[in-house]
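For consistency, the fold was encoded as tokens, as this record shows:
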Amino acid sequence: MNPVNPVNPVNPIQLQPAVWKDCLQPNEFPLMFQIRQNFERPRIADIAGAIGKILSDLSLPLIRPGSRIAITAGSRGIADIVETLRAVVGFFRSRGGLPFIVPAMGSHGGATSEGQVDVLSHLGITETSVGAQIRSSMEVVQIGEIFDGIPVYLDRIASTADHIVIVNRIKPHTKFKGPIESGLVKMMAIGLGKRSGAELYHRAALQYTFPRVLQEAGHSVMEHSPILCGIGIVENAYDETASIMAATPQNLEEEEESWLERAKELMPRLPFNQIDLLIVDEIGKEISGVGMDPNITGRNREQLGVFPHPVSIRYVFVRDLTRGANGNATGIGLADLTTCRLVEKIDLNETCTNCATSLSFEKAAIPLFFRTDREAVSVALSSLGLVKPRDARIVRIRNTLAVSRLLVSQAFQAEFKGREDISIVQGPTSLSFGADGNLDPLSQD
């Protein structure tokens, strides 16, 4: 017998949305300013040149002709990642090596080898674009132990290489805070540990904490596998490559700590801390490991414990999934409202596998969903207690990687006047909806 509301267990969700009546009249919506935030903007123009210089200056051991060199590629959206990987491939090929790419993304891509190749493809990383074969497998080998006999795993294909080069962005993590967060050490432990390692380390973190687990697992990987070097990428607030650094295993952890501090200095931020409604146009795994970065929004539901953050938001409305998310809606549980179009794009297998592996069940919880943006915004603004909808403090962003140009409601006007880091682009204008009831695209630089 079929269930009353059949749901495809893989993809997509089929739903019958409730019919909501408009709660507000057009003149009850707040007026909006389009503003630009001005952040520090260091940027590397010549990626290939920068890669060649830092690797040449690193005093690497001699690469024997024909040496197999595994170069990691993760599931995050990283500025200039295709050009960066292509340059790394070219450097080691010019030294006589035989470089190839290995996906290093834990359980992402539905925890299948084909799925992980597909994730890379959505990021533009293909054999043609980077000039090297992509070799994907979910098989692992045990290379060591940490704590009380907890195994340390390594991607089987990477384990057969003569050298492993770790390439990743350095950034604040979405689950925890420590001297090392998201970057090279994490990719060695969880990324190259594939699903087996990712599941095990997330469970171990409940007892030992994430910083300790990553540190110990990272030490084991560097001790028991042929890690040649790590290449760390730091981005500016405009989603551009700000700096590229490299280190050998002997000083990698120390260097990554300093790179993380620089990443924190350059990361974007919302212009205000007290917000009634944050509208996020899109979330996705290439935006953040949890779809939208808690380091930006302050929303960090986490069973390991939330970290303090100055931003406080009453309601978060997420409008859509990115194409690059490939149906993985991890992080939708951090929202209060969403749309039918997003829910219908959810790949349950991708999302549930990711959230179950990371012990983040709450990140997959589906919030209230609506047929149109207007319905969602109307419900949110009608649920602010004694705050009149027209006086609501609204911020709208494209995603948590793109917060330099955004919309803010007129209620903030007194706070951004005279601020040197904010300039008004346009407004105030009406918060308008198209004939389909959805918001118009957000203008970007």
Summary: The CA atoms of residues 234 and 315 lie 31 Å apart. The chain has two domains: 26-39+269-430, 47-266.
